[in-house]
Amino acid sequence: MFQPKIGIIISLILIxxxxxxxxxxKTPFIVVEPDDQNSSSKIEQPAEPDDPDDTNIMNEDPSxxxxxxxxxxxxxxxxGVILYEPTDxxxxxxxxxxxxxxxxxxxxxEPDTESQKLSEFSDGQVFVIIREHRDWWxxxxxxxxxxxxxxxxxxxxxxxxxxxxxxxITNAYSALTRSSGFEIPGVTGEKLYDAWSYNPxxxxxxxxxxxxxxxxxxxxxxxxLALEAGDTIIMHEAYRAHESQQRSVKLxxxxxxxxxxxxxxxxxxxxxxxxxxxxxISNHQRGAAFDVNxxxxxxxxxxxxxxHHFQNVVxxxxxxxxxxxxxxxxxxxxxxxxxxxRSRDAWREIPLAETMTPGAIxxxxxxxxxxxxxxxxxxxxxxxxxxxTAAIDIGIRGTFYIENIMSILPRRE
Length: 413
Hints:
Strand content: 25-35%
Strand order of the largest sheet: 8-7-6-3-9-15
Shape: globular
Oligomer: single chain
CATH class of the largest domain: Alpha Beta
Order of helices and strands: HEEHEEEEEEEHEEEEEEHEHHHEEHEEH
Helix content: 10-25%
Structural class: alpha+beta
Largest sheet: 6 strands, antiparallel
Distance between the termini: 56 Å
Radius of gyration: 25 Å
């Protein structure tokens, strides 16, 4: 008497299976992941992230004050396909890294400026990068808002993606800034801003070091050149808030008024004050400049974070340089005379300053080969001129301080 019931059950199972096969056959989502050599790709079904914190971020709903924004794994583009495409892999991938909006920018429902605008980020808004798609990041802010932003107008936390660099942001605890060897009252030895936090992505306390995302890729190249030669970049500063910059300008000018030696050194032709500290907007405010030193690696090891490997500098010895970093006077010049800082190659026609040491020349070589341009008046300063142009076009002006991160572990390779 159970045969009719068994037949009904079997029929229902067959109908369910047929429905599932039809539904799966129409599923439009694929994920393209790079292989270990970054030379080809394989197509896979979307996988859940390995890190539980990442899972929570990707699946939580946006805040109540914005329209619904679906997770990119659960929403299609116009063509019905979403590709996971890291554009320029660095030591660690961008997913899980902290980012900031460089200017006020819209938050979109899809990686398309024609899609729905969900909300708006103010300049300096912090967020975690969930994934990258071509010129876009899918992000979640500290207020719970999720959506797509164009990353050309964004900054990224450098230790999150290039952890092999030695970070020593001296302005965040005791500024080394001097002029003609004289201390600048209110600046030298002072903490100019906060930039230190526990970084759960790296499992340690680390400096917060924002940089324009476009510029970070060139810095990565410079560090790889240095590592290949047994050296490491020592990062002293990337992004600097405009308010902090202007405070230093004011205090240096006060010192110049009181100290004739400082004033004469800075203002004697062919140099001037603006060559040693920008009196308006500097490329640091645009996130497209780096103040760096160079060290010879004494010992190192290999670190692994969720399947991603990178070199970790344990001990190093700094090269002898013309001056200490942030010496604001002709003592620190890299070239014999000024040359346009807007030209990628004009500096090559000017002889190096006699004070340039082998270490400073070595540092300049790494950054030049990576596509960055030296500044005539500071041996430690390098500009990403393409990044500068992009930042000016976008309107990045360094109107905000950066004091916190949202970094989490990256996806497994």
